[in-house]
């Protein structure tokens, strides 16, 4: 998804169109994910006025969409206002439109000044999606392997990662996502924005990676709806083949 910086109305309209295109395609998706901070982009100097109070506008659109179309939604992340604080928050809904997760980005990214304008979350992104233990992290969070390992130890078999990750760090993005999938032997489902904000170019390359580290699908730098089918039994097979979780020796490190 491309994102119009500082224009929530345009982004809501654009997202709704993409969602309608996604459910019109075949096969009908079980889960939809989109990028980080899709409502505002990194309009941080105006984030107090632009952010969504308690995520209410986002919830009204996405809970209703999930229910109407019988689809689970990992709602990218949004700038969400809590009192006088703004957090970078993922909400998720099940097929009945029930909210099933809320996670606010723990690691704020100084290179994009997040820490000057946003508050960090203090809870992990653990949830269940139709009985499947899952985890959520946001963008810069993938540089902290302890976080995904903790989610994996807590049972996550699939990790969702919305992002706004720009050039020139494509190599980091691809390598870190693959490492998180391989080391934790779980699926990684990532969605990174495309397009330009000022002088910053976002490269997309959203990816679904399987627990063996193979890329199931990868986008390019253009806006697109990517589809992938995953087999969660693959997590069990890979963990059986190389029993990393049994071989850990955490008392030594
Ligand atoms: N929005 C982000 O957290 C960007 C993280 C990023 O670009 C990185 O290199 O890390």
UniProtKB/TrEMBL annotation:
Listed Gene3D superfamilies: Carbon-nitrogen hydrolase
Domain of life: Bacteria
GO molecular function: hydrolase activity
Family, similarity comment: Belongs to the carbon-nitrogen hydrolase superfamily. NIT1/NIT2 family.
InterPro entries in alphabetical order: C-N_Hydrolase, C-N_Hydrolase_sf, UPF0012_CS
Protein name: Carbon-nitrogen family hydrolase
Keywords recorded for this protein, A-Z: Hydrolase
SUPFAM superfamilies registered for this protein in UniProt: Carbon-nitrogen hydrolase
Ranges of residues in domain CN hydrolase: 1-232
Pfam families tied to this protein: CN_hydrolase
PANTHER family xref list: DEAMINATED GLUTATHIONE AMIDASE, NITRILASE-RELATED
The keyword Hydrolase is annotated on this UniProt entry: yes
Signal sequence extent: none
Organism field: Paenibacillus whitsoniae
């Amino acid at each position: 998804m491309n994102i119009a910086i500082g224009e929530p109305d345009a982004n809501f309209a654009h997202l709704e169109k993409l969602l309608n295109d996604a459910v019109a395609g075949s096969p009908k998706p079980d889960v939809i994910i989109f990028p980080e901070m899709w409502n505002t982009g990194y309009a941080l100097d105006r984030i107090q006025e632009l952010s969504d109070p308690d995520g209410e506008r986002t919830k009204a659109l996405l809970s209703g969409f999930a229910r109407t179309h019988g689809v689970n939604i990992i709602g990218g992340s949004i700038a969400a206002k809590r009192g006088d604080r703004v957090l970078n928050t993922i909400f998720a809904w099940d097929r009945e439109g029930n909210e099933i997760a809320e996670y606010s980005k723990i690691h704020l990214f100084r290179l994009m000044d997040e820490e000057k304008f946003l508050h960090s979350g203090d809870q992990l992104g653990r949830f269940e999606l139709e009985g499947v233990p899952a985890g959520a992290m946001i963008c810069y969070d993938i540089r902290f392997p302890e976080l995904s390992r903790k989610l994996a130890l807590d049972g996550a078999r699939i990790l969702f990662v919305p992002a706004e990750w720009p050039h020139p760090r494509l190599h980091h993005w691809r390598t870190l996502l693959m490492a998180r999938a391989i080391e934790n032997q779980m699926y990684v489902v990532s969605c990174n924005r495309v397009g330009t904000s000022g002088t910053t170019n976002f490269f997309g390359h959203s990816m679904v990676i399987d627990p063996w580290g193979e890329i199931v699908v990868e986008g390019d730098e253009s806006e697109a709806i990517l589809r992938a089918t995953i087999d969660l039994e693959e997590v069990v097979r890979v963990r059986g083949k190389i029993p990393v979780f049994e071989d850990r020796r955490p008392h030594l490190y």
